[in-house]
Amino acid sequence: TTMNQEESVARGCALQAAMISPLYKVRDFKIEESSQHSILIGWTGTADQPEVAEEGDMPTDCKDGEYKTAAIFPAGSPMNTLKMLTFMRRGPFEVKAEFEDPSKLLPGTPTDLGTYRFELPVQAQPKKVKVRAKLTLNGCFTIEGAQLVEEEEYDEVVKEKRELPADGQVAEEKPAEGEGDAKKVPEAKFEWVEVKRTKKRAKKTDLKVTVSGAPGLSAGAMQKLMDAE
Questions:
Q1: Given the DSSP bridges, would you call strands 93-99 and 39-44 parallel, antiparallel or unpaired?
Q2: Residues 155, 214 contacting (CB under 8 angstroms)
Q3: Of 24, 36, 56, 102, which one is least surrounded by beta carbons within 10 A?
Q4: CB atoms within 10 A of CB 45
Q5: 15: pLDDT confidence band, cut at 50, 70 and 90?
Q6: What is the pTM of this model?
């Protein structure tokens, strides 16, 4: 069919709403959208930060006390994308998000996307903090959450199969004609025993994230509007 621009937008909106809604079932359509603007994040480095990032994470290394910015979602990044950031910290810290090139924004559009403070309790040793940053399906930047990741040891009781020691007696068999003495080897016996083993696992604790300066309504205002609906 032939459609003008308004009809195309209307049909696309109706199709997208039907795909998201649990009340309708439509064909499987693949829709790929990308962000037009590059988004930066900035943070202040510490001496505890490792130089090599974990596999799949965005590098966050920089010199102690240095403020560094990096493009977490470059222009052209697909929507609904999640990225992980790993920081080694001893206490609370902040991450700031902003648009990279203000000249590409509409006039009057603020460049700041918010400052996110992670309430990490003061630690004697540097601890690993995993931050989840997301470019939502609507193209909005957000911090989904942060977790303190610690390694802890725990004891686990497992059952193992062990061979019982032989009693030392070997049954003798009468040799056949033309053969030498033959001895019958006793059949091995086993038992199940409980063994305590020390293992390691990752303990994850959710951290409180305080947002300031982010565009849009606050969480409290959004909740009031949702309650009013």
A1: antiparallel
A2: no
A3: 56
A4: 16
A5: confident
A6: 0.71
Per the structure block, which two tokens stand in for 173? 């068999």
User: How far is CA 27 from each of CA 16, 19, 24, 137, rounded to the nearest angstrom?
Assistant: 11, 8, 10, 19
- Amino acid identity for residue 182 in this structure: A
134 CB-near residues (< 8 Å, 6+ apart): 80, 81, 82, 83, 141, 142, 143, 144
Element (H, E) at 18: helix 5-20
* For residue 174, pLDDT beyond 70: no
Percentages of the chain per state (helix, strand, coil), in multiples of 5: 15, 45, 45
The contacts of residue 226 (CB under 8 Å, 6+ apart) are none
Residue 185: per-residue pLDDT: 64
Judge contact between 150 and 203, C-beta under 8 A: yes
Each residue's pLDDT tens digit, 30-56: 778 898 999 999 999 888 777 666 776
Q: Which residues contact 65 (CB under 8 A, 6 or more apart)?
A: 44, 45, 46
Q: In which band, very low, low, confident or very high, does the pLDDT at 115 lie, cut at 50, 70 and 90?
A: very high
The DSSP element (H or E) to which 111 belongs, if any, is none
Cα separation values, 46 from 63, 107, 146, Å: 6, 36, 18
